[in-house]
Amino acid sequence: MQNFSASRLLLTSSILLLAACGSDDNSPSEPSVPAAFVEVDNAARAAYTTHQVPMGLAVYDREGTKVFERMYGDFSADRRVPIASASKLVSGVTIFRLIDAGYLSLDSTTGELLGWTGTKGEITLRHLLSFTSGLEPEHACTYQPDIALVDCVEQIRQRDLLGAPGSRFDYGSTHLHVAGLMAEVAVGSDWNDIFAEQLHKPLQLAPEFAYYAAPRQGRDTRPTNPLLAGGMRASMNDYERVLHFVFDKGRWQGSQLLAASIFDTQSIEPYPNAVIGTSPRSEARYGLTAWLECPTPATGCTSISSPGVFGFTPWLDRTAGYYAILGMQLDDLRSDRGLGTEIERTLKPLIEDAIARQ
């Protein structure tokens, strides 16, 4: 895991300088920054200046009204980029819809649906969605586009468990691969069709908002081995619909498409005594396909996030009354992975203050 202390110090210094001096490089064609969001704009612009990564920031209030949007560099709110682990929240909500429809429950097991035996057969969907299944978190097959999901999951099954289900947390792709196959078996359709029926069509998402065999290149939609944990491409405007749906706890355009209670469950760490094995964020705990951003994860958080390694970072805060998307695409060879999360941490208190002062 990279040490970001030097990056954080440089970013903070830039923010303080811009906050003191203001920013005079807005394009004349852009509307002026709302007074409440000046410090937010300064901080985001400082991050862009420091790291020279084109990015965008959009903030929406609890009514779903966009209250702030700025692009830095040549980024665009319509630019579709690989969103990496921001895919996890989308995949989780798709599975939530299946739970709501009765196809699955959080207590459904790999033994019941996949025929796994022994301790491996005791792994539940709750374990898989919280990355506490005990499975090795990564397997090379999850990134192979030319095989079937069922074949990859069989390779995952053959590996020894790292621990009993519920005993340890390991962040990675294998858990959602297994959950995806459980969904396919329960519904009798492939994952791409499940996603289309359960989320894509109801939220009227763009056709390009999909799982890709090569998400960085944007090639080959409808892969036979979809990477549920990181294989999507989306724009900020695409993702806003999903994040709005999550923020509103399953309500969409006046209709409750999903029981609100599942989102309360999502925001609670299901196994607070689990040891941390593999994790990119040692300070944070995890719920169901989302990071829990509060000091009380065992009893619930009102702020969750789903950042991706290429910088695309969505998050929401129901107490503060907003949700936000930081859009960017880092080169995967860069040394500063985790930049999106670092910028989010800087922006959150500023946005909270801005929302309160509107």
How would you summarize this macromolecular structure in one to three sentences?
The chain is an alpha+beta fold. It has eleven helices and 15 strands.
**CATH second-level architecture of the domain at 84-309:** 3-Layer(aba) Sandwich
Low-confidence stretches: 1-28
Indicate the radius of gyration in whole angstroms.
Answer: 20 Å
Number of strands: 15
Biggest sheet strand line-up = 2-1-15-14-13-12-11
Protein described:
The structure is a single chain. By secondary structure, the protein is an alpha+beta fold. Helix content is 35%, strand content 15%. It is built from 11 helices and 15 strands. A 7-stranded antiparallel β-sheet has the order 2-1-15-14-13-12-11, sandwiched between helices. It has a 4-stranded antiparallel β-sheet with strand order 3-7-5-6. Strands 4-10 form a two-stranded parallel sheet. Helix 1 (5-21) packs across helix 2 (38-51) and helix 6 (149-158) packs across helix 7. The chain is globular, with a radius of gyration of 20 Å.
Q: Can you give keywords for this protein?
A:
358 residues, alpha+beta, 7-stranded antiparallel sheet, disordered N terminus
Secondary structure: elements and pairs:
Blueprint: H1 5-21, H2 38-51, E1 55-61, E2 66-72, E3 81-82, H3 87-101, H4 110-114, H5 125-129, H6 149-158, E4 168-169, H7 174-187, H8 191-200, E5 210-214, E6 219-221, E7 232-234, H9 236-247, E8 251-252, E9 255-256, H10 261-266, E10 275-276, E11 285-286, E12 291-292, E13 303-305, E14 313-317, E15 322-328, H11 339-357
Parallel strand pairs: 4-10
Antiparallel strand pairs: 1-2, 1-15, 3-7, 5-6, 5-7, 8-9, 11-12, 12-13, 13-14, 14-15
